[in-house]
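Why does residue order matter? Because the sequence determines the fold. Keep that principle in mind as you read this record.
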Amino acid sequence: MLLRQIEYFQSVVRNNNFTLAAEEHHISQSAISQQIKALENELGAKLLERKNRRFTLTEAGEHFYKRSLVITADLEQLCRETVRLDQKDAAALSVGFLISYDGDEFTRAIAAFSEAYPAVTLNVMSGNHEDLYDALRFGRIDLALNDQRRAFSDEYENHILAESVLRVEMATHNPLSQLAEVEIADLRRLPCILVASKEQQEEERRYYRDIVGFKGEFLFAETLQEARVMAVSNRGVLPVEGRQSDSFFGATLRRVPLTRGGSPIRRTYCAFWKKDNANPYVRAFYELLKGQFT
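Structure:
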């Protein structure tokens, strides 16, 4: 009962409102108020100063709230560890995402899955298109969020999640950043900055040169953050994956749609997994991921 009362108390403080906290737990406002009073009686300490319909935390209440969050997190972790130890074949799911993908849909799906399936060990990797393709092919991951560069294969589940316009990020002091859109032919004298491991640099260069159409020099970074620093210093332009459409990215970079012959260059992002994959959590993760794109 004490744990439930602590949960109610945390909800009231988090929402800064008794009504919202009651709705969150599907009980009446009077019931949650009674539970908070019962918690104060149990502790022998006043946690909230009530005034009309508002409240503030007492010094004891603020201390109790902060420490209770730590205890709750430890308890949840203890429960997860106990379940995993009890399972001879611990449940696990391995997923991968495109290293240059800039949307937050994947991370939101990770958070939703971890909350829905706390006993499942979730392993995450990032990589270029070929990294993810090889990881799927050889069973190192169960599912990948990847761009579509090949025709769909009958060996895989191939589900389109989103289509978007390819954009480039460039320093705001680059004159081209003032354009509403930029023609890829106009970037021929500017290096193209790509995020790629040393093993995948040639493959990425070939794709962005022969398929996308960049004709200038290529520079490589190992992380998206490193690539952005290069773009900010006006060393080149950075193609960005994902559905983000903001014209400005901070005060130092501008994100501009990329066109070829006056038409937007479009990219397709998909969820892939092998049809013979027997992991029961693959479909569950996909459904959560798909929900982030709708």
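The radius of gyration is 25 Å.
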